């Protein structure tokens, strides 16, 4: 696990299993809204690609999961949700979607 401070009070945490070649990252930023706006998607999703969006719930927090495309990562699986005044943007490679699903289901806020 590695953490990186970002501008505006945001941070990124990466989780990696080098042996299994699996990883995901979580970008967390302060967010005052209760819904993820199109403006926020445009700001944080430079490709503008949001394929197959589906509503999700992560430990009671409403959000959305979708496939996208990101620089350096190519095709991605994204899971975005809001909790406690923070926007969480979870990203992994598209082919790791099935691996990420149980991780997201096991997510608990403490």
The gist of it:
With 110 residues, the protein is an alpha+beta fold.
Describe this structure in words.
The chain is of the alpha+beta class. The chain has one domain. It has helices spanning 38-44, 97-106; strands at 2-5, 11-17, 22-30, 51-58, 61-70, 74-83, 86-93. The chain has a seven-stranded antiparallel β-sheet with strand order 1-2-3-7-6-5-4, covered by helices on one side. The chain is globular. The two termini are 19 Å apart.
Per DSSP, the total helix count is 2
> What is the oligomer described by this structure?
single chain
> What's the total number of strands?
7
Order of helices and strands: EEEHEEEEH
Structural class: alpha+beta
What are the segments in which pLDDT stays under 50 over at least 5 consecutive residues? Answer: none
Query: What is the residue-averaged pLDDT?
Result: 94
Largest sheet: 7 strands, antiparallel
Q: What sort of overall outline do the alpha carbons produce when their principal axes are compared?
A: globular
């Amino acid at each position: 696990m590695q953490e990186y401070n970002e501008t505006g009070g945001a941070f990124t945490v990466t989780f990696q299993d080098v042996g299994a070649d699996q990883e995901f990252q979580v970008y967390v930023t302060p967010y005052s809204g209760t819904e993820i706006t199109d403006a926020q998607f445009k700001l944080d999703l430079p490709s503008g690609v949001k394929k197959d969006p589906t509503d999700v719930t992560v430990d009671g927090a409403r959000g959305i999961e979708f496939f996208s495309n990101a620089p350096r990562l190519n095709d991605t699986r994204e899971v975005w949700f809001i909790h406690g005044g923070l926007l969480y943007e979870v990203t992994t490679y598209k082919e790791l979607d099935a691996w990420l699903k149980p991780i997201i289901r096991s997510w608990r806020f403490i």
